[in-house]
Amino acid sequence: MTKSEFQELQIRAASCGTTLKDFLRAEGVAYSTYNYWCKKSKAEAEPMRIAPISIRTEFHTSSAPASMAGVDLPGVTLETEGIHYSERTLTGQAVTYAYTRWENMMRVLEDGRLKLDNNLAENEIRPITLGRKNYLFCGNHESAENMCVIQSLLATCRNHELTGLKDQVRDIFLVGCYTCQRVSDYNNIQSEDFTTTAKGTPIIRLVQQKTRNEVKIPIMNPNLEAICKKYEYNLHSVVDQILNHYIKEILKDLCESVPTLAVKVPTKLTMKQKEKEKAGELTVGRNDKGEVMMPRYDCVTTHTARRSGITNTYLSHKFTIVQMMHVSGHKTQKTFMDYIKLSSDEIADEIDAIVNGAKEEVF
After folding, report:
1. How big is the chain by its Cα radius of gyration, in Å?
2. Which of 291, 302, 202 lies closest to 242, judged by CA?
């Protein structure tokens, strides 16, 4: 029953000289309908009382920042004069929100280092929040820990303030992580490689140097888009040896922010490192098993970007293997899975986690 139909029944009941309740019962109208429209009409008839708001400006001496000591800063006070207002309205909700958080919001006037909003923090946690359910299925604790290291490394490296060549090296390495390409490809992206699909999806079109495969990489990551805009879609190119040298220095500087980068892990020496060790020019530590132990930051190379990108994409469980292979350029699933390096136990754990998740959704 609509509002106009209910009002018409009210008029007919008044003309018959009977109560509305009795009239509706005679007409076969359910009591629940009568009760609903009576309450709705009563609520609409009540005036919405909104509290008058007075904004008062006062001056006080702030002592929060040392550099601002003794300076008069304007303060703003919100007063509602104790009058009740309806929280059902948008205005009432806005007044309630402002009144309960007024003291915290005014701190921005006391310390110039504070920002008016928390957009920076929200932008940082958005990718993690959007993929929260997907990250539940990392396989096991070790895989989850590895993914946390990768996420922390990327976020810290991205926000690390750098200048000059180190800034370029950092951005090129991140492009490699976000595109999952080899250094010969992500270090040579030209402005003409940026294009769009028929539906308007922004992509990077590359012909891989090693295999001559054509890949089309959608620019979905906002950080990748920000780097592209930073260089006006004309990314710089740096010699591989310089990339390898500076990326290790950058990550070594980040050890204080990401302590896991300084943890020594088992690794293998390159041919050049073996020759230097044999000649006495290089000294390395070994564990009880005879494995070479080096800090994690010292194991990072230009190829780490590709492996990290592929592993991170896989563990997010947002895309199929076919979709990821199309971006990475792998021809077979076997070579693709060699990058992920999941053990049989990890795969079994993943299957169990997915099945249990499906059971929870069903039951």
Report:
1. 32
2. 302
Phi and psi at residue 266, to the nearest 5°: -70, 140
Specify the residue for token string 């929100």: 97
C-alpha neighbours within 13 Å on the C-beta side of residue 230: 15
Given a contact cutoff of 8 angstroms between Cβ atoms, the answer to whether 51 and 93 are in contact is no
Q: Which residue, among 248, 203, 209, has the nearest Cα to 225 in the 3D structure?
A: 203
Residues 310 and 304 sit within 8 Å (Cβ to Cβ)? no
User: d(Cα 243, Cα 325) in Å, to the nearest integer?
Assistant: 26
> Residue 346: pLDDT above 60?
yes
The distance from CA 157 to its chain's CA centroid, rounded to whole angstroms, is 15
Q: pLDDT tens-digit profile of 98-147?
A: 878 888 888 888 887 777 787 877 777 776 666 666 566 565 566 666 66
Residue-level pLDDT at 119: 80
Distances (CA, A) of 37 to 17, 43, 86, 89: 20, 10, 21, 20
- Phi then psi for residue 319, to 5 deg, are -130, 155
* 8 A C-beta contact, residue 318 and residue 132: no
Sequence-separated (6 or more) residues with CB below 8 Å from residue 61: 70, 71, 72, 73
Global pTM? 0.57
